[in-house]
Specification:
- This protein is α/β, with parallel strands linked by helices.
- It has 13 helices and 17 strands.
- The protein has three domains: about 140 residues, no CATH class; about 70 residues, SH3 Domains (SH3 type barrels, Roll); about 200 residues, Aminopeptidase.
- The chain has a six-stranded mixed sheet with strand order 13-10-14-17-15-16. Strands 8-7-6-3-9 form a five-stranded antiparallel sheet, with no helix packed on it.
- It is elongated, with a radius of gyration of 25 Å.
């Protein structure tokens, strides 16, 4: 192995720990051999050739080879001097993050004054490598001490604590760990463990923290990232430098002219991530004149344009020579198509979403063809419509999502399923059979948040009446439509104008 280790420009010596952690974030299909439960790190293909993550991977640390699942994120933070390794060239990606290290990494990201200082904590002396960052992060209410007045700088950070710290650092309006987890999951910063949980009590690895922090700083590291501006700004400096990241230590990829208009994609500390006609990167916010006040919610036109870019794929189950389940002389394939067409009508008449149907008639499609269409259309949401059947005695509605890493959007898929299930129960008032994990092809093999709703039991007399009633099918379509809007609302998008 060629060991061209570039560590001389890294700013702080991180402490090495004695324990090894067996939980990890991981690339899709590339499981860490030391792990039994992994979080997905799906590979990101950015269209902007200027950003660092698209450059050839260079090994900066002996223990982070080009094949490492988090090398892009670790290299990105190391290039910005946000993280570093030991003097002998090791990053120790599998070691746990301490509270002192977390404070230092947040402090460097946010350009806090890291000069060693006297702190408010008796167990953090001025000589502690992170004393300046700890005090600054405490003053900014990002991280706090304990009831006895101590800080416990060597205490290991858990995944749940990490979620709360990131939300505080980025100004997300949350007050507890659970709300923080939902924010990170909804934004794609975290994707959860392969068993469907977040693992909030598990210790946090240095490599995983690097992934979360890189995604928070630069959303192009997020799987299926789509650059969508929420406000516009005008450049107020001739030759304004555009950097790879939100620090001057990141390289300059282009310059902008005075008076040039740009879209603002993300804001971080004193920096904004912008997109012009020719480039995408980070600039200092002091040289931007916002057309709307920073920190305000997008105006209705911005939301409308964003939703126009969102593709909703509705899949009518079965079709052609595959009738699906049946009962009382009614076939599933006919019911699902009727409801799907009604859902399409709701979207077309009431919203700017781009709506696609896998089938609009009685044709047959293989399951793989349905998934292929959704991917071809670059779908943002996939909903498959079905009916159930057992023995004529079971009644109710249930909605499924896939809970493993083949589809990397476990939490988002669960959220989507929960939103649709809730609306269906309100609409039809059938037995609530709940939101469940389902190993179903159209969910498992998809690459976007996906849910499958079983409207009712076609072989149950009472359920069958709903499935054959035009007004009831319209209520089901409306419930699915509003449920998808609820999903977007839960992700922070103002869709109130589009509800029916």
């Amino acid at each position: 192995m060629k060991r061209s280790i570039l560590v001389t420009n890294l700013c702080v010596i991180f402490l090495l720990f004695s324990s090894v952690f067996v939980y990890a974030e991981n690339n899709t299909g590339a499981e860490d051999p030391n792990t039994t439960r992994t979080e997905n790190i799906a590979s990101v293909a950015n269209t902007n050739p200027g950003l660092l993550q698209d450059q050839p991977l260079e090994q900066l640390f002996f223990d982070v080879p080009a094949s490492h699942r988090a090398i892009k994120e670790i290299n990105y933070l190391a290039t910005g001097k946000i993280v570093s390794g030991s003097t002998d060239g090791y990053f120790s990606p599998d070691r746990h993050v301490t509270r002192a290290e977390a404070a230092a990494m947040f402090g460097r990201s946010l350009e806090f004054n890291g000069t060693n200082t006297v702190t408010n904590f008796p167990d953090v002396g001025q000589s502690n490598f992170a004393s300046g960052y700890i005090q600054a992060a405490s003053d900014k209410k990002i991280i706090s001490g304990y009831g006895d007045g101590t800080f416990k700088p060597d205490k290991i950070v858990t995944r749940g604590e990490m979620a709360l710290l990131i939300c505080r650092a980025f100004g997300y309006d949350v007050t507890n760990t659970q709300a923080s987890i939902k924010i990170l999951m909804s934004k794609g910063i975290a994707q959860g463990m392969v068993d469907g949980t977040f693992g909030e009590t598990l210790p946090l690895k240095r490599s995983d923290f690097s992934v979360f922090l890189a995604r928070s700083i630069n959303p192009t590291f997020i799987h299926n990232y789509q650059s969508t501006g929420t406000k516009n700004a005008i450049i107020k400096k001739e030759g304004l430098e555009v950097h790879d990241g939100p620090l001057l230590s990141y390289g300059v990829i282009s310059t902008l002219v005075n008076g040039e208009e740009v879209e603002v994609l993300n804001e971080f500390g004193n920096w904004a991530m912008i997109k012009s006609q020719t480039t995408e990167g980070f600039v200092q916010k002091e040289y931007l004149e916002f057309t709307s006040d920073p920190g305000t919610t997008p105006n209705p036109n911005d939301v409308y344009e964003y939703l126009k870019s969102q593709t909703i794929v509705i899949d009518a189950g079965h079709g052609g020579h595959d009738p699906g389940s049946s009962g009382y002389n009614v076939q599933e394939k006919a019911v699902t198509l009727d409801v799907a067409l009604k859902v399409q009508s709701y979207f077309a008449a009431n919203s700017p979403f781009n709506i696609k149907l896998t089938r609009e008639d009685g044709k047959f499609l293989e399951l793989s063809e349905r998934v292929a269409l959704a991917k071809k259309w670059n779908g943002n949401v996939f909903v498959s419509i079905h009916t159930n059947a057992v023995n004529g005695k079971v009644s109710g509605t249930e909605t499924f999502y896939y809970s493993r890493a083949t589809n990397p959007h476990v939490e988002q898929s669960r959220l989507l399923a929960e939103c649709i299930q809730k609306r269906m129960i309100e609409a039809w008032k059938l037995n609530d059979r709940g939101v469940k994990k389902g190993n179903l092809h159209v969910l498992r093999e998809n690459s976007m948040p996906a849910a499958l709703v079983e409207l009712a039991f076609i072989d149950h007399k009472g359920d069958n009446k709903l499935l054959t009633s035009e007004s009831s099918k319209d209520l089901a379509a409306k419930a699915i439509y509003n449920g998808i809007l609820d999903y977007y609302k839960a992700n922070g998008i103002n869709v109130s104008a589009f509800y029916k």
